[in-house]
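User: For documentation purposes, I need each entry recorded in a consistent format: the amino acid sequence on its own, followed directly by the corresponding structure tokens. There are two entries in this batch. Please keep commentary to a minimum and don't merge the entries.

Assistant: Recorded as requested. Entry 1:
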Amino acid sequence: MSYAEKISALVKAFEAVRIMPVLALETVSSGLKLCELLVENGLPAAEITFRTAAADETIRQAAKEFPQLLLGAGTVLSTEVLKRAIDAGAKFAVAPGFNPTVVKAAIAQEFPFVPGIATPSEIEQAFELGCSMLKFFPAEANGGVKKLQNFLGPYRHLGVRFMPTGGITPENAPAYLAVPEIPCVGGTWLAKTSQIREAEASGDWSAVQKCIADAARLAKG
């Protein structure tokens, strides 16, 4: 399968889930619990960010325990982190910005990579390197749906797709998801670090479970 075909398959996988939970995890145990809740509640996807030391092992164990999970690595800012994500078993990687060095390394290994963009110049540079699935970040702070629709004027014919992340909420997510070129949005609201910490300490995951179940219903429209 060519790199373009892998990106096309990733877009289809994004279209199937519609909301990509973005998780910053402090412990492997909390990460595995969240993956379990995501699978059980009909939202089998997770972008586990490399903002914490728990990322590698969480991805590694989740890849084995939940093979049905669309499991990605987020905040991939260097080739070293990219290697760690691949070695751990991530199926794709995401970055908040556009770093040509990391993009080229991912493409050289034919590993699906979603770089972040916020300007027309970044869209063009990413597309030239072979990236047609892009993260729009931070979405709301950068003009939201209206700005993305302006991007699509000159770039729609290229077949680019966007995953807006940053400031997405259950209230504004439907407006993003109504845009055909948006297969999914990044759901940072699903399980915030403080909420995860409290749930793990108390053993009561009901609030997190409800948030995930609500998001799953939202994703199904």
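Entry 2:
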Amino acid sequence: MRIIKKLDWFIVKQFMGLLVGAFVICQFVLMMQFLWKYIDALIGKGIPMDVLAQFFWYMGLMLVPQALPLSILLASLITFGNLGESVELTAIKSAGISLMQAFRPLIVVALIIMGVSFYFQNVIGPNANLSFSQLLLSMKQKSPELEIPEGVFYDGIPGSNVYVQKKDLQRAMLYGLMIYRMTDSFEDAAIILADSGKIQATADKKHLLLSLYSGEWFENMQRSGLGDQATIPYRRETFTEKKILIEYNSDFDLAETAGIANDARSKGLNKIVHDMDSVNCQFDSIGRSFLTDEIRMVKMIHIVDTCLSKKEQKKKLLAWANAKKVKQKSPDSLFVKLTEQKKLLVTQEALSEARRGEMEAEYKGLVTDEGDHFIVMHELEIFSKFTMSFACMIFFFIGAPLGAVIRKGGLGVPVLISVIVFIIYIILDTSGYRMARGHFWAVWFGKLLPTAVLMPFAIFVTYRANKDLTVFNKDIFIRFWAKNKKVLKILKYDKAKHNRRGDS
């Protein structure tokens, strides 16, 4: 018993040292990969160091749940690869200690890391995601000049190209301004030159206020149709101070703040469940109102009360149907008796009614689709919190047995295997997420797909390693291929013989 405890501490120490190093490497790689998404928003914008520090801090917190499974896979592979390569694993088995007993302390560690991963995704991750999104939005709203780089034309403002020679971020000033404002074509462009200026977002965050100092404004007058009548085809204005209001809804829309608050990634599990219940209740009431409108259109509002139970509604509908068992005239027979003018009038009214119904159906479809998308995104986030945490255990039972079988330490073969397994997991997880988000697959199927694929492989590898068997027996594949070659030769011979008989 004392030997096993010492062995457990020895394996845990070996594993934890490698786990910390693997986590740092994986975190760095994932952050660099994530950084490419926002590289254009950071490079050349003169963002202060404290803002950049917050940016990377929140990014790192968001990526911790993804780095943990990969680091466990890599650390377990290297740990048992080193033990196997140094013949220590053989000595452990010679002492009567099975491979599963050697796994036991690391299974406890993997369970603890799995809990840490879930805590990050449920508590720290949502807050980090919310702070990260608010940081990006505040960078745009408080300092719009950060979006405009120095020395190149910036086309992010609709209808304008802005060139800034130099920026002073402390005073929020822009120097050496050149602005091309286009309406219909480049021939109709207005050119504005200014020594300095500054750009600010308005209070409603829907416009940009451009304050320019000491400049000139050149504008082509032919665009308004005055070129043939006016003696001067263009106008030139010199100003000492000028203010221009530019519409800019794309990046400063107030809907972005609502989108941040409603993002499922910015919510914990309790908040997600609460919001899903609220949305389900809200859209159930909307659905009942839609049903009431449809019933009113067919003149059944006095029969069906939406507050009644389904059984009571069904009884009233049956009673109404029995009461209506009266022979009625066909609408076609009534339409034939009308005059041509009335037929045209009835047809136009029916067409307008059909179009109105189509528009109402499209609107109702948009409303319900929005609710369905909201529910799906929140369900995906619920599954993600559990599947990403459980991936820590799956990756351990892939990495540790493979390390014990391969018996190769270092960063060569383990890194290659870890990258291949992690890429397969990411491909399956991303594909399932997108298919579920697009309503092609069920949410549970899309999110459980990588687990369903990798878990049998983890069980297979663990079983083979515990029985001291190779994971992939080369001789089995050779024999299988040889048998298939014989079968193919027999099939080819029979086909050629049949063709010769057909020719004869």
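Summary note for entry 2:
The chain has 14 helices and six strands.
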